[in-house]
Specification:
It contains 15 helices and 19 strands. Helices cover 40% and strands 21% of the residues. A hairpin with a 4-residue loop joins strand 15 (378-387) and strand 16 (392-402). Bound molecules: manganese (II) ion.
C-alpha cells in the first residue's frame, strides 16, 4: 500500500548547569537510545541535538511543524530541563509527542554512585518538571515509563509511532464519496467540516457518472488480465460476464482514486446510475490494498479504516469494513454474525476466498461478484467514529472472534464473535454510546492504538472490554459529555 515516508524525532532536554562534559555525555547517551529505538520501531527514529534553551526549543518545534516527514516527537529530559524554557515551543507544536520517561542507566551502580552520576541521571525529577508543564498547558500526549530496553516500553512506543504515522497520513488525506448517503440513514451522516478541522482529512462528493466514465475507458485486455489474476488467487465460479464487469469496475475505480490522490472512498447502492452492478469485489480488493471504504456513503468509517490500515501496516491480522448483521441469541453463548451485503476485506480471510456471483436483493442491478470467506478465530475489536453533533466520540469494543460455523447458503464473507465482557453488557454499552452498525473490524489494531489516536485528535474514547460495567460506562459517558463541552467551549467541533 502507498504510505508517504515518515520519521520520529528523538528530542532530549537538558540545561547548561552541569558544564559541557555532562552535556556531551547527555548527547552520547541520547544518541544510543535513539539508535536502539530506530532499530526496534517500524518508523525511522532521528536523533536531534540536545536542547538547552528556549530559542532552540522553539526553533525545533517550528521545524517539526514544517517538516512533512516528521510524524511526531519523543521527548525525554535526561537531566533537569527547566520547563518554562519549553512553553514557547510546545505551545506552538502541531505534531504529536510522546513523553518517554526513562533513564540511560538501568541499574544504580551501588559501589560507585556519586554526585556526578546523580546529576547526569536526573530524569526522575527532570521528567516531573516536564510533566508538570505538559499538564499545565493541557497538552495531549502519551506517557511511556520504564527503561528504554524494556520490551513493554518498546511495544508502547511502537504503538504510538504507528499511530503518529497514521495521523500524519490523515493530514490532507482525501476521501471520495461516490453518490451521497443512503437516504434517511442517520448514523452514517456527520459534519464533514468538523471532521476536516479535527482530523485533517477531507471528504468530497463525486457524481457516479464521473467514475463510470473512467470504468468505461478500461480496455478489454486490462479486464482479461485482471480476471486471470482472480483465477490465480481465488476459487472462481459464476457468470463470466459479471466477473468481467466487476474487474472493469475495479480497474476503473482504482484508476479514479489513484489519479485523484484519494486514499478512501464510499459507495451507495442507491446511486449506481450507469454502473452494471454494486461494486463489491472492487471494494473488497481496494480495501485489501489499503484504501479506506465505507458502504452507504459512510465516510467516517472509510477514513477510520484508512487510518487503521496505515497504523497496522506490516502487522499480522487483517482489518476490514464490517457490519453487525444478525445475532445468535442462545442464552448460553450469544454471538454476533458480522458481514455486509458484499464488502468485507479479504485481509481477514482465514483461507483462500471464493469468488462467486449471486443475486443481490437491493439496488436493482446485475448480480454482483464478491469474495466469500470466513474470518478466523482470535482477539479482535470493532471501532466506530460517532458524530454527536457537537463533537466526535471514538467507540471501541473488544471481542473474541470464533470460527464461523458452516453456512452453505450465505453468499457473503462473514465473521462470528463473542462480545466482551458479555453479550448483554457489551451490546448494551455500544447502543448506549450511540455506536454505529458499521465499524472497522480488526485483528491487528489494538485499543492502545485507538487510545493514542483519540489523545492526538483530542476526542473522547469509550472502551468496552473485559472490565466494562454498564453503570460505570453510562456515568463515564455523562461525565465526558460535560468535560468535552467545557473543554471545547464555543469553538465547538
Ligand atoms: Mn451497511
Amino acid at each position: 500500500m502507498q504510505i508517504a515516508p515518515s520519521e520520529i524525532w528523538f528530542v532530549t532536554g537538558s540545561q547548561h548547569l552541569y558544564g559541557p562534559e555532562t552535556l556531551q555525555q547527555v548527547a552520547e547517551n541520547s544518541q544510543a537510545i535513539a539508535k536502539a529505538l530506530n532499530d526496534s520501531l517500524p518508523i525511522p527514529v532521528v536523533f536531534k541535538p540536545v536542547l538547552t534553551d528556549p530559542a532552540a526549543i522553539r526553533t525545533l518545534c517550528q521545524e517539526a511543524n514544517a517538516d512533512p516527514k516528521c510524524a511526531g516527537l519523543i521527548l525525554w529530559m535526561h537531566t533537569f530541563s527547566p520547563a518554562k524554557m519549553w512553553i514557547g515551543g510546545l505551545s506552538n507544536l502541531r505534531k504529536p509527542f510522546c513523553h518517554l520517561h526513562t533513564q540511560f542507566n538501568r541499574d544504580l551502580p551501588w559501589d560507585s554512585i556519586d554526585m556526578d552520576f546523580m546529576n547526569l541521571n536526573q530524569a526522575a525529577h527532570g521528567d516531573r518538571e516536564a510533566g508538570f508543564l505538559h499538564s499545565r498547558l493541557r497538552l495531549g500526549r502519551k506517557i511511556v515509563v520504564g527503561h528504554w530496553s524494556d520490551p513493554e516500553v518498546i511495544a508502547r512506543l511502537d504503538a504510538w509511532a504507528r499511530v503518529a504515522r497514521g495521523w500524519l497520513d490523515l493530514q490532507g488525506a482525501k476521501i471520495a464519496r461516490f453518490g451521497d448517503n443512503m437516504r434517511e440513514v442517520a448514523v452514517t451522516e456527520g459534519d464533514k467540516v468538523a471532521a476536516e478541522s479535527r482530523f485533517g482529512f477531507s471528504v468530497n462528493g463525486f457524481g457516479i457518472g464521473d467514475v463510470r466514465a473512467v470504468i468505461d475507458s478500461v480496455s478489454d485486455q486490462e479486464v482479461a488480465s485482471l480476471v486471470d489474476e482472480y483465477r490465480s488467487l481465488y476459487a472462481v465460479s459464476g457468470d463470466e460476464a459479471q466477473i468481467q464487469a466487476a474487474a472493469r469496475q475495479e480497474i476503473g475505480i482504482r484508476r479514479f482514486l489513484t489519479e485523484g490522490g484519494f486514499v478512501g472512498f464510499t459507495t451507495t447502492f442507491e446511486d449506481l446510475h450507469g454502473l452494471n452492478q454494486l461494486p463489491g469485489l472492487a471494494s473488497q480488493r481496494l480495501m485489501a490494498d489499503g484504501f479506506g471504504f465505507g458502504a452507504e456513503g459512510d465516510w467516517k468509517t472509510s477514513a477510520l479504516l484508512r487510518f487503521s490500515k496505515v497504523v497496522t501496516h506490516g502487522l499480522d491480522g487483517g482489518t476490514s469494513f464490517m457490519e453487525d448483521y444478525t445475532y445468535h441469541l442462545d442464552p448460553a453463548d450469544s454471538l454476533v454474525l458480522g458481514a455486509h451485503m458484499l464488502e468485507i476485506c479479504p485481509s481477514i480471510a482465514s483461507g483462500k476466498p471464493r469468488l462467486e456471483v449471486h443475486p443481490l436483493g437491493i439496488g436493482g442491478k446485475a448480480d454482483p461478484a464478491r469474495l466469500v470467506f470466513d474470518a478466523p478465530a482470535g482477539n479482535a475489536l470493532n471501532a466506530t467514529l460517532v458524530d454527536l453533533g457537537d463533537r466526535f466520540r471514538l467507540l471501541v469494543h473488544e471481542v473474541e472472534a470464533i470460527e464461523p460455523k458452516a453456512m452453505p447458503n450465505l453468499p457473503v464473507a462473514r465473521a462470528l464473535w463473542r462480545s466482551k465482557p458479555d453479550f448483554k453488557t457489551g451490546i448494551g454499552a455500544w447502543i448506549r454510546a450511540g455506536g454505529a452498525h458499521h465499524t472497522v473490524y480488526s485483528y491487528s489494531l489494538t485499543t492502545e492504538h485507538l487510545e493514542d489516536f483519540a489523545e492526538i485528535a483530542g476526542i473522547e474514547i469509550a472502551v468496552i472490554d473485559e472490565e466494562t460495567s454498564l453503570r460505570e460506562f453510562q456515568n463515564e459517558l455523562r461525565q465526558n459529555d460535560l468535560y468535552y463541552h467545557l473543554a471545547q467551549g464555543v469553538k465547538g467541533h
